[in-house]
Design brief:
Layout lengths: L7 H4 L4 H4 L11 H8 L3 E9 L2 E13 L5 E10 L1 H19 L4 E5 L4 E4 L1 H7 L3 H4 L4 H5 L10 H8 L3 E9 L2 E13 L5 E10 L1 H50 L1
Antiparallel strand pairs: 1-2, 2-3, 4-5, 4-8, 6-7, 7-8
Length: 253
């Protein structure tokens, strides 16, 4: 009654479709009409435009029989699932976002079985998404941290903290420098049930840093050589001045 904003007295005697106004009312999808016709229980989902906006319901309808066993009406139970539907929609949107992320994203359970991988991650592994789900993450990514105390997913699940680290992965005969972050996953009882990993290939960054470090090292060596040469030139110049002075004195004598 609170949901539709009416009292029991205001509702009694009125048509159900005038009160609830679901999208199934007065259509062949009406559950009450179906159970009264068939005598069978049935359930379905529907939506209704109520005072504070559109609401979504799970409906359960059962026939009511008289003393002679004939159908005399129907009883219908409405469960408001609007918040659940909104949460599911948000989850679907988030999954779409993850699918579009140009970096591997995986979810694992407590036993390191992959329960989700985005399209990009599957492509990096050279497999279809369906081929990867259910496999062990350490068999697929084969990093130097896998199955060691350095595994960030294991640490995240144990400590309930977000963990970031860098490692080397060997996939399809290639070696990658990887920076990855693990987030613990929880169930509705706040129990850790797995982890989500987001990985980034930093191989080119590492290569660029190595190149820059090489250039800096070479420049330092050149600078040191120039400094040493300058010192030698100054020293030689000093010796030349002393020698010239000595010759001048000798000549005058």
């Amino acid at each position: 009654m609170r949901l539709i904003g009416l009292s029991q007295e205001q509702v009694k005697g009125k048509k159900c479709y005038e009160i609830l106004k679901t999208v199934d009312c007065l259509t062949p999808r009406c559950l009450c009409a179906f159970v009264m016709k068939t005598g069978n229980e049935v359930s379905s989902e529907t939506s209704a435009r109520i005072k504070d906006g559109e609401r979504h319901f799970k409906c359960f309808s059962s026939p009511i029989f008289d003393e002679n066993g004939k159908t005399a009406g129907a009883m219908e139970l409405f469960v408001d699932i609007s918040d659940l539907k909104a949460a599911v929609m948000r989850s679907k949107q988030q999954i779409q976002y993850l699918k579009a992320v140009p970096t591997p994203v995986i979810a694992i359970d407590e036993n390191f079985n992959i329960t989700y991988i985005n399209d990009f991650g599957a492509k990096v592994l050279g497999h279809n998404v369906e081929d990867v789900v259910g496999r062990k993450c350490y068999d697929m990514f084969n990093t130097e941290h896998c199955r060691t105390p350095k595994c960030t997913s294991a640490i995240a699940m144990r400590t309930r903290k977000v963990v970031t680290s860098e490692t080397i992965a060997r996939i399809g005969g290639k070696t990658f420098n990887v920076r990855y972050t693990a987030y613990p996953l929880y169930d509705e009882y706040n129990r850790v049930v797995g982890a989500i990993e987001v990985a980034m290939d930093i191989t080119r960054q590492r290569e660029m840093m190595a190149t820059i470090e090489g250039i800096v090292k070479s420049a330092t060596q050149v600078s040191e050589s120039v400094e040493s040469l300058s010192a030698e030139i100054l020293e030689a110049r000093g010796r030349s001045v002393v020698l010239a002075t000595s010759w001048h004195r000798l000549w005058k004598s």
